[in-house]
Design a protein that fits this description.
- The protein has 141 residues and is an alpha/beta fold.
- It folds into two domains: 65 residues, Signal recognition particle alu RNA binding heterodimer, srp9/1 (2-Layer Sandwich); 53 residues, Signal recognition particle alu RNA binding heterodimer, srp9/1, CATH 3.30.720.110.
- Helix content is 17%, strand content 35%.
- The strands form two sheets. The protein has a four-stranded mixed beta sheet, covered by helices on one side.
- Strand 3 and strand 4 form a beta hairpin.
- The two termini are 20 Å apart.
């Protein structure tokens, strides 16, 4: 069994995919738009049809893990509350590169630096409001 994060960008999914490809080297494994579904099968709970060009389902490969994404109902107001995605780069140099790339257009919550449990640890919110932890642990978890 796996746990795979599934993020709903509420109309900004394509922008997020482009951003994560650049910032994290993510690879698009799969992308399906609402317009790719059979007529009438991709409807919102209220019966409306999302725009055909919006992303119904996408999968990004980031390192050995996958991140699932969608535009959801494309209302334009994504909210990401109560969780963070954690990245474990191989070393401090990679942690710095990833932290800076994800923070571009976002906000650092705790600057990247050494702590008692990690040679590099930082917290940020990216331009979409997704919370990230960057950790290069000094000892195995």
């Amino acid at each position: 069994m796996q746990i795979q994060p599934y993020l709903f960008f509420d109309g900004r999914c394509e922008e997020a995919i482009t951003f994560y490809r650049k910032a994290l080297g993510a690879e698009v494994v799969m992308l399906m738009r609402y317009g790719d579904s059979p007529a009438g099968e991709a409807t919102c709970p209220d019966g409306t049809q999302p725009p055909a060009d919006k992303v119904m389902h996408a999968c990004l490969q980031i390192g050995s893990d996958q991140l699932l994404l969608s535009d959801g109902f494309s209302g334009g107001h994504p909210e990401f509350k109560g969780f963070s995605l954690s990245l474990s780069p191989a070393d401090d140099a990679e942690a710095s590169r990833v932290f800076d790339a994800l923070a571009d257009g976002g906000q650092a919550k705790q600057p990247l630096g050494p702590t008692f449990f990690a040679s590099s640890f930082g917290m940020l919110e990216d331009r979409f409001g997704v919370s990230w932890l960057i950790v290069v642990a000094t000892r195995p978890a």
